[in-house]
Amino acid sequence: MSISSEHKPLGKQVTGSLHTLSPIVELNVGGEMYTTTLSTLKKHPGSKLAEMFTGQPKLRTDSKGRYFIDRPGTYFKYILEYLRSNQVPTQCIQDVYKEALFYDIEPLIKQLEDSPQIFGELVARKQFLARVPNYSENIELMIRIARAEAVASRRSSVIVCVVRTEEDAARCQDALNSLDMDKKSVVKFGPWKAAPSIYDLLDCIQMDVEAKGYKISFQPHVAEKGFRFKSHDFFYKFLFTWW
After folding, report:
1. Is 5 helix (H, G, I), strand (E, B) or coil?
2. Is there a contact between 189 and 201 (Cβ–Cβ < 8 Å)?
3. Hey, where are the domains in the chain?
4. Which residues contact 193 (CB under 8 A, 6 or more apart)?
5. How many other C-beta atoms can be found within 10 angstroms of the C-beta atom of residue 141?
6. What predicted TM-score, i.e. pTM, was given to this entire model?
7. Would you state the pLDDT for residue 64?
8. Domain 24-114: top CATH class
9. Other C-beta atoms within 10 Å of 49: how many?
10. Which one has a higher pLDDT value, 174 or 114?
11. Pure H helices in the chain
């Protein structure tokens, strides 16, 4: 006598639908292997990391069945240390901060933002640069000019005009009209209303261009004889070295 379809055993279909995560979880984070507990990963319920392991995990597995997270594995150990013991890392602060933002672990983010490294970057330097008009756009413009002039050259240079006040901006424009060069190739920064000096801004420019992988240095731009102003009052040469 045949068994009707409604009485056939469900087998693996039932097993799969009732599958629950083991309390011990093996992870492959960017090629680095970790073993931890499910409760550790879900310690902060509102985090993206906790969401990854809520219900059926929304993650792929590697060939060994470990859950795979496509992030830098080196810094995940600091994330785990915090989840296990509330230990705030003192190394690789900038990189761990990026991972904390990705995993959206709010308490760790706030504690890292109180560290001198992140506080100085977010509250001091970034707040200053936010007051320099078109700062990010000018950094990209510098790079485009330097790359355009790099053909068959070891180095290329970009002239930057830096003015801190409105009065200096007017004087700089007069000086720019006297320069014997293509004025479109001069990148202007400023003016701004904040305490940092012109050399502070020049250091920021160098830091941010170097952060994009370029080798760069700067020096005052010395104009030709007969120039009406001291050129180093406003003009600086940024030198890109390609090889």
Report:
1. helix
2. yes
3. 24-114, 132-241
4. 131
5. 15
6. 0.70
7. 93
8. alpha beta
9. 22
10. 114
11. 12-17, 38-41, 48-52, 76-85, 93-103, 106-113, 116-119, 126-129, 135-148, 166-178, 198-210
